[in-house]
Amino acid sequence: MNRIAFINLSTQQVMVKDIPEELLRRYLGGDGLNAYLLFNYLPLDTDALSPDNVLIFGAGMLTGHCDVSLSRFQITAKSPETGGFGTSNAGGFFGPELRFAGFQHLVITGKARRPTYLWVHDGEIEFKDASFVWSKDVYETQQLLMAKMSNPDIQIATIGCGGENLVRFACVMHGLKRAAGRTGMGCVMGSKMLKAVVVKGSQSVNAYSPERMKDVFDKHLKQVTSTKLYPVISRYGTLTIFAIQNEGGQIPVMNHQYNYFEAAEENLEDEIFEERYKTKTLACFSCPLRCSHRYRIKYGPYQGVWGEGPEYYMMAGFGPMVGNNQWDVILAANDLINRYGLDIGSVGGYIGWLMELWQRGILTERDTGGSNLKWGNPDAIMGLINQMAHNEGLGGMVGQSASHAAEEIGKGSDRYLYQQRGLMHECSVGNRASRATALAEATTNRGYDHLRGRVALEFFGIPTEALAKIFGRPIASDFRAWEGKPYMAMWQQHFTTVIDSLGYCKFATVWPGSTGNLTYKEFAETINAVTGWDVTPQELMVTGERIWNLERMIVLRETGIGREGDIPPRVYFEPNKLEPLKGEKLDREEYEARLDEYYELRGWNKDGTPKQETLARLKLDEEPSHLI
Amino acid sequence: MNGKPMSLKTFFVQSALCSGCRLCQLVCSVAKEGIVNPELSRVFVNRIIMDGVMLPCICLNCEEPPCIPACHRKAINKDPDTGWVTIDYERCTHCQLCIPACPYGGIFLGPQKEVLMCDVCGGDPACAMACPTGALRFLSREIGTAGEHMPLS
Prior knowledge:
The complex is a heterodimer.
Chain A: E1 3-8, E2 13-18, H1 21-27, H2 30-41, E3 55-59, E4 73-78, E5 85-90, H3 94-100, E6 105-109, E7 116-121, E8 124-129, H4 138-148, E9 155-158, H5 161-164, E10 172-174, E11 178-180, H6 185-191, E12 194-200, H7 210-224, H8 229-236, H9 241-247, H10 270-276, E13 278-282, E14 292-296, E15 306-308, H11 312-317, H12 327-340, H13 344-359, H14 365-368, H15 378-390, H16 393-401, H17 405-409, E16 419-420, E17 423-424, H18 436-442, H19 450-453, H20 464-471, H21 485-502, H22 520-531, H23 537-559, H24 588-602, H25 612-617
Parallel strand pairs in A: 1-6, 7-12
Antiparallel strand pairs in A: 1-2, 3-4, 3-6, 4-5, 7-8, 9-10, 9-12, 10-11, 13-14, 14-15, 16-17
Helix pairs in contact in A: 2-21, 2-23, 7-22, 12-15, 15-16, 18-21, 21-23, 21-24, 22-23
Chain B: E1 9-13, H1 23-33, E2 44-48, E3 53-57, H2 67-70, E4 76-78, E5 85-87, H3 98-101, E6 108-109, E7 115-116, H4 126-130, E8 136-140
Antiparallel strand pairs in B: 1-8, 2-3, 4-5, 6-7
């Protein structure tokens, strides 16, 4: 059932190929095989909005198989936000359904002549007219498609008007809140006039050893529902992270000016969300963790607004980042963003940036069309989101220009724009006090990325000896100390890459710092039961490293940016202004030295490029190899 | 009690607790077919996505099962000792008359137009064992879960 469909929207031709086993074993699926396909199929010097850009949907190699939390799929293309490596991951039911429909990957090229959606079902792919859903929001689009096909059980990945209007950071939405958010994959869909991909399947997914698979599943289910994390995540989801980050002085406030937001105390709390707004607990396919929630605003100016989510990311990005402490505003913005299909990470970041420009007098009412961008102003927040989605006014300009907006505005505005590789810094993440996490997130290939780099185990004061057991070498217990951290950073990057390639959700793994959760050993158990292979944790670590290096090759080929893209934004080298962790920062010289150490561990040159011998060791020296 | 032993068990559904994860469907297809295919499951979660309503449907082993008289082949039986209602596939022709007869939508049609109905895995149903929220439970008929509508803490 490991097949790829090559779909040309210009010619409406489809070609289906089996994935050679050798390729599966080298790159797995999801993120890994997507990267392989992008590197092999993206023509040189392609503009991200050109029909030649290659948009790849990929279910994880195990997505839809019998294990816990195997719901994830990855979308990959050249990024219109950065011009570099575009990739983003989402959960829900789309990934498994894609597999039940008979495909692991869809490779989409060309451009449709009119709004189109793809109908993918049981090995068939049809091109359908999407005119009736063009300009409809994400919720409406899905309702209309379900009605049109008389089937409420189809799974849909769609864009809202963000993607249609080519907002550089438009995302691809699935359900009400599941989003392949970062790097503008929705913008690529919009540029291809592809409104949605609709999947439904009834094909069976076989395992090499069903008995072993069932045993492995029983064990893993018990494992992930026995951790200390489980009762918390299944009740509050990621919202519970907010208090930890804020009270720990590690949250970005007002565009990274501060690291603690006092106004959030007794306002922005997970328990308040649960009491006042939450109406239902929901989960992705095969996931016992059920971290999603439905909500409804019952009173006040946003009465009647309902939606799904938010995550910690939204809570922080539309809370402290923009100087807001009102749950109502976060929830109303969440609904708006999800309906439009915009990336929370970039939208929150850009609104925070514009508000700081207002604070500093760089922007005035003349620039904003009369709108007052003072911190936390709900009308400004909603107004900018609306402008971005519809390409109007100041927000529209930012949506169309992304990080080049600083050139449009001028007046030194770039000094307050925190981006890496052209990607807006995550609006919910401020890690200048930590070492492994800052290094790992800053050196990720798409831009600063907690989903590849957050090293949660760094923060719990775990004794050095216990860390040595996990990482195989001495690692400093204090998150502010550097010893062993470059290795820890690299380890985590490979680990998250393998997770995204297999299709697991990171919250079922040790990634959030829950040591009882799944790790390489459990991944290998499932892979071997499903495929009959003899994969070891060591092999998977090398697989993660191979994919990581291939992604670096994509970045280098498309942008030529190596070392300079691995340096976090300016604020990371400036001291925190507030307690806790007042005065903490990264030391630039020390960071550069540790970056050298990290490159050395990777077998890379000092300019952030892999050495030839490293590529040869990882069997990457013949890429692009066109094995499919 | 009508003189019935306490051990008689059947399914109880609390849709308020159901997260819609479909682990029940996944493990059912593995238990019954040795493969993953939620469409071959003997339990089905109706996911009414926009309303956020998740409704697990399964054979509830009725006291007077309407599917039994609906079947022209006398292929459906209720075990007098356990109370479980099952299909005898030696007799079943997959004519589908039982499907609309079930008032709970607990009998399903598979991808090959085969009729699928729960057999409680012989008394240890895989679906209820895998349900992480308690939305689908296999309990004594006399106790059940009626009246429980709050999430378990």
